[in-house]
Amino acid sequence: MKDLSQLDVKGRRVLVRADLNVPLEGDVITDDGRIRASLPTIRDLAGRGAKVIVCAHLGRPKGSVNPKYSLAPVARRLSELLETDVAFAGDVVGDSAQSVVAGLGDGQVALLENLRFEAGEESKDDVLRGEFARRLASLAELYAGDGFGAVHRKHASVYDVPQILPHAAGGLIVTEVEVLKRLTEDPARPYVVVLGGAKVSDKLGVIANLLTKVDRLLIGGGMAYTFLAAQGFEVGQSLLQEDQLDQVRGFLREADERGVELVLPVDVLAAVEFAEDAEYEVVDATAIPADRQGLDIGPRSRELFAGKLADAKTVFWNGPMGVFEFEAFSGGTRAVAEALIRAEAFTVVGGGDSAAAVRRLGLPEDGFSHISTGGGASLEYLEGKTLPGLAALEA
User: Fold this and answer.
1) Which of 25, 33, 271, 395 could be cross-linked to 278 through a Cys-Cys bond (beta carbons 3.0 to 4.6 Å apart)?
2) Average model confidence (pLDDT) for the chain?
3) Predicted pLDDT at 350
4) Do residues 275 and 256 lie in contact, with contact meaning Cβ atoms separated by under 8 Å?
5) What distances in angstroms separate CA 299 from CA 234, 334, 342, one per listed residue?
6) Is residue 27 a contact partner of residue 73, using CB atoms and an 8 Å limit?
7) CB–CB of 152/377 below 8 Å?
8) Which of these is catalytic: 171, 319, 350, 352?
9) Residue 146 marked as a ligand binder
10) Is the dihedral of CA 118, 173, 192, 182 positive or negative?
11) How many CB atoms lie within 10 A of CB 181?
């Protein structure tokens, strides 16, 4: 895979596929982590005299223009972080985009409107997607793939455009791939993976693959209740995927056969309702009252999980341990994050809600070896899948 140092970019129009899919409340960005992660590549290209054309998606507007998903707030924040004006195009490949690109001088930066306002971006029809890709590619002379959070999607800006233009991987993608190779090819041991989040079904492939590679697997979050139910325990009103029980029983058997230590919560915070101020009590994870739901791992589980991380040499963490957005139910996620910070290990936070939790809880980002920008992409890589965006960059 070429990196950007191998491209002569001075005076040339470079299309940068970034991942700027940030959370918004109205037009206020609540977490600018993905924008900040894109800065090194943009600065590198601008500093070398490229005319930088950034493109990205935001949310799921489903192929039509929706002001709710405009990248205008992102353009403003990008301007602030770069400390220079970022020209914003009011469309993706139309008159505004063409005018903005034509007006760029060497070292200047522009941002196109949301790629997903164009139906061709996500189309499963190769012809329609290819037509949009050609229009997008016509704006530039070179392509830099730097949106790691989107490389698992076979989208026009991720997969088709690099087949049209001379291309290279941006620094963010190069770093992400190096980290994931370190997790998959010869990890220092003990190798511990912590998985949380809501649904087992979101992580079936990664669990199946990791059971062949890890020494210890810690399960928290909403998905833990399906594991507990698979062992025959009462989980009350907790999140439960009954259609996954047989699959989970298979995981439990395989972990036992392979000698993988699979660790589940031993106590939980059981609440009367899903609410920030809900009344709750600490109960054994094996005896959750029928009228309550687990919203976080309990104090004994936090101590247990921290102990299982203490001797680790490699740790991958993806998914919160509870409803961390609610202060009362954020303690489990904080405990795991702080255990990673204390560990003398190569620690990787697998993007998505885990990365958001680190920032929301005010934890030092430099306390971890790497915080990924790509939750879904990281998981699919760890499953052993071929990621379309990476395959296109390697061609």
Assistant:
1) 271
2) 95
3) 87
4) no
5) 20, 12, 18
6) yes
7) yes
8) 352
9) no
10) positive
11) 12
Q: How far is residue 293's CA from residue 273's CA, in Å, rounded to a whole number?
A: 7
Residue indicated by tokens 């203490």: 310
Q: Is 167 annotated as a binding residue?
A: no
Q: CA-to-CA distance for 154 and 162, rounded, in angstroms?
A: 12
Residue 350 known to bind ligand: no
* Catalytic pick among 17, 34, 77, 292: 34
The one catalytic residue in 130, 171, 376, 389 is 376
Give which of 6, 343, 388, 370 is closest to 182, Cα–Cα.
370
Q: What is the pLDDT of residues 67-95, one digit of tens each?
A: 999 999 999 999 999 999 999 999 999 99
pLDDT value at residue 56: 98
Continuous H helices in 21-90: 33-47, 72-82
Say if CB 367 and CB 166 are below 8 A apart. Answer: no
- Backbone phi, psi, residue 13, to 5°: -85, 120
Which tokens sit at 217?
């697997």
Is 43 marked within a binding site?
no
pLDDT of residue 199: 85
Give the residue ranges of the chain where pLDDT is below 50: none
Taking Cα atoms as reference points, which of 224, 257, 258, 230 lies closest to residue 244?
A: 230
Contact between 132 and 108 (Cβ < 8 Å): no
Phi, psi of 371 (to 5 degrees): -115, 115
Establish whether 77 is a catalytic residue: no
Is 376 catalytic? The answer is yes
User: Does 354 appear as a known binding residue?
Assistant: yes
Question: Residue 193 corresponds to which tokens in the numbers above?
Answer: 């993976």
d(CA 228, CA 51) in angstroms, rounded, equals 55
Please tell me the predicted confidence (pLDDT) of residue 202.
85
